[in-house]
Amino acid sequence: MAEADIYEIHDPRFRQMIVMSAGLDELYSGCRWAEGPVWFNDANQLLWSDIPNQRMMRWTPESGVSVYRQPSDFTNGHTRDRQGRLISCEHGTRRVTRTEVDGSITVLADRFEGAQLNSPNDVVVKSDGTIWFTDPTYGIMSDYEGHRAEPEQPTRNVYRLDPTTGELAAVVTDFIQPNGLAFSPNETILYVADSAASHDESLPRHIRAFDVVDGRRLANGRVFCLIDNGIPDGIRTDVNGNLWSSAGDGVHCFDPTGKLIGKIRVPQTVANLTFGGPKRNRLFIAATRSLYALYVAVTGSQLP
């Protein structure tokens, strides 16, 4: 795709956020459904999920692509905690796990109020160490991205987990299919995608915003923006508070008020994205069968 065809500018501000001469690099092709990219600056590597192929992949600038873990228990979204450890959502086991420094796996959450979780999807870690994740039913709807099963939870929730005490709380319970999530740079807002239109066009394809109260609760839920092509899946914010979302035609960028200011066109449906590279100014994009990367003129807000 030529550079001139990549960008769709809806607001002049978007020109200052992109590098017009930067090409869209396809780093790997061969996934069935690429998801959950997470950047490790200290290791100069990107990990991501290839869910139906039951594997986690690794990319480094020096060595290219290799398999990081297989089988992966149909792992989907990933992030890192404040100690730099990998936090993962697993469809196959319906749990959230932490990969320790020695490679062992610790189960952080797999049940709520005595019943199995649906299929944890995406996850972020707040600066206080708490872990926030979504729990739609995608991983139990078929055997393609998990294991078909009936949900045990009556609702599809957003959760807050305190890994120190093990306390798990449902902070939002009225989503149809909660998906990607991201904090604003100052952590006063949590954005959560509802991707229910993936299986029913009449259902939501929007991102909601919630005020974070006392670092523990969510309040004042409202629709932040709509996705006009496909659905919102993975989302991330930059240091200026702009929200970058996956979509059917690529990546959509919204300003802090929810106004669409630009798009990055990608040849395949985008599932997720993250900022990475030494300066966190390279956008890594998991899109159906491929992993793409694109340099931008902004910096991602997520740490470490």
Query: Which class best fits the helix and strand makeup?
Result: mainly beta
The CATH superfamily label reads TolB, C-terminal domain
**Sequence of secondary-structure elements:** HEEEEEEEEEEEEEEEEEEEEEEEEEEE
Q: Care to count the β-strands?
A: 27
Euclidean distance between termini CA atoms: 32 Å
CATH level 3 topology: Neuraminidase
Please tell me the total number of domains: 1
Average pLDDT, rounded to a whole number, is 97
Which stretches are low in confidence, meaning pLDDT under 50 for 5 or more residues running? none
Architecture, according to CATH?
A: 6 Propeller
Helix count equals 1
Largest sheet: 5 strands, antiparallel
Approximate helicity band? under 10%
- Name the CATH class: Mainly Beta
Strand order of the largest sheet: 1-24-23-22-21
Classify the beta-strand content into a percent band.
over 45%
Tell me, what's the shape? globular
CA-atom Rg in angstroms: 18 Å
